[in-house]
Design brief:
The chain is mostly helical. The protein contains 14 helices and 13 strands. The protein has one domain. It is about 55% helix and about 10% strand. Helix 2 runs antiparallel to helix 4, helix 3 crosses helix 13 and helix 11 packs across helix 14.
Amino acid sequence: MTSAAAEGGPPLVACHDCGLLHSLPPAPPGHDVTCRRCEAVLRTPRHRSLPRCTAFAASALILLGVSVLFPLLTFELEGRAQPGGLLSGTEALWSAGYPTLALLVLFTVFLAPLLRILGLLYVTAPLLAGRGAPGAGSVFRLLGNLRPWAMLEVFLLGLIVAYVKLAGLASLEVGTSLFALVGLILAMVCAEATLDPFEVWDRLSPQRRAPVDTAGSVTAGGRLVSCHGCGQLEEAGRASCPRCGAALHRRKPGSLRRTGALTLAAALLYVPANLLPIMTVIYFGAGEPDTILSGVETLVAANQWPIALLIFFASIAVPLLKLTGLAFLTLSVRFRSAGGRKRRTRLYRIIEGVGRWSMVDVFMISLLAALVKLGNIATVAPEPGAVAFAAVVVVTMLASHAFDPRLIWDGAGPEEME
């Protein structure tokens, strides 16, 4: 970055949701600075952001090790015991002949969280000493991309559902790793909550500044392009961002085509995901395959209404609402709709935020398959529907990532709110 870009008045940032250019005003720690047009959070300054985030990340690394080493739960039935740990679901799915599903569970509950923790330490620890680590910009950009795929909190919810389903069948013993897992999730939440990403980026390479006499917000000019990876503003014509290495573009290339294609693929996968069985529970030699809906009906029959509603909402309603919402957003941009821009932007944020929680069923199946494998006494076997359902979750997450919400606001004036 040139020195001229860092000189002048307050930092310039373009809203990542609507593209409006802002000169950031000073704000006390803990107070959000939001976009005046679409209300997206532009920055939340934090007190002692780097040392606190580093400490929480170091704690999370230790707790992750404990979570892997010891059992989460032990299932006991007819004098036989079967422990299950953080990685047991991956092993069970692989042994059952579903390697793709096993690798997805391994990535979301272990590799992605591990990479996020190590990446945070790699970036923040050297900055405490006043210098940036080699390639820190690219690493920090990668952490942002990994964030939706680190699903330990969704895994914990799946574990709770599995516990409720098994509690009436046999004895369950809580292991040491369960407490470590809860601590790990809290440590990662705290690391994220205490970190100020803007401060990290500004320390790695100063954010472009506004002219001294500029205040408020202005429409993004034709000569500046906002990096979608780090938020830096660069002159149009650059191929990549010098701060984080991401390709520079005014809008995500082929956003509507990719979003539409992925949404259509997810819609096609949604049919077998709901029609095919996702698992079979065999108890003393007898059992029938369960689909998602039949599993909900079984929970209702057992008067487990909270868990039944949770599974119905996360596994049936949320994917369907995501598909409908993504189709609506894509078509509204395609036909250049000028109404309800703020409402559509809020819809996009909801879609992007809730999609990962549909993985709760996949994690539940992996845990049940790992815990309930007692031969002729009791066994849980995953079925092809689980693969189709996991594919729906992954493809819809990719579709929401491919959509560029700034397209909603193309053609809108800087003061236009709707």
